[in-house]
Amino acid sequence: MSGRRMSEAESAILSRVASSLGTTGEHLFALPDPIRRDVAALLEYYRDPPPVPITISCPLCRERHIDEGVWATRRHHTHSCQGCGHTWRPAVVDTVGVRFLPGFKNEEDKS
Ligand SMILES: [Zn+2]
Ligand SMILES: [Zn+2]
User: What's the CA gap between 107 and 25, in Å, rounded?
Assistant: First the structure.
């Protein structure tokens, strides 16, 4: 095993995944350092994915909802309309209301 440079966090992720798979995780821990780090990072990403960027409008008053400041990165699944105060959940997963979807930069709706 070449686990000397493994961080606590990385080791914890690999152990957790291994036990959820019902294995000891020897195959994970035995991976070469850079690959093992990537695997741990990937597993962590899927365990705790960042909020999905979406364009949303309030279902009641139709005001565009854009998360800014701390809400642009803070994970949340319910959103509160700045216009009418309505709170709703647009998706099962965590989401963040954005002006433009990543890769798109269209005219914003004139509302
Ligand atoms: Zn929001
Ligand atoms: Zn509203």
Answer: 50
Which residues sit with Cβ closer than 5 angstroms to ligand 1, an ion?
Answer: 67, 79, 97
Residue 4 DSSP class: T
Mean pLDDT per segment of 10 residues, for the chain of length 111 residues?
A: 68 84 84 88 80 94 95 90 96 92 69 51
Residue 69: domain span: 52-97
Report the Cα 91 to chain-centroid distance in Å.
Answer: 13
CA of 104 to the centre of ligand 2 (A): 25
The total of structural domains in the chain comes to 2
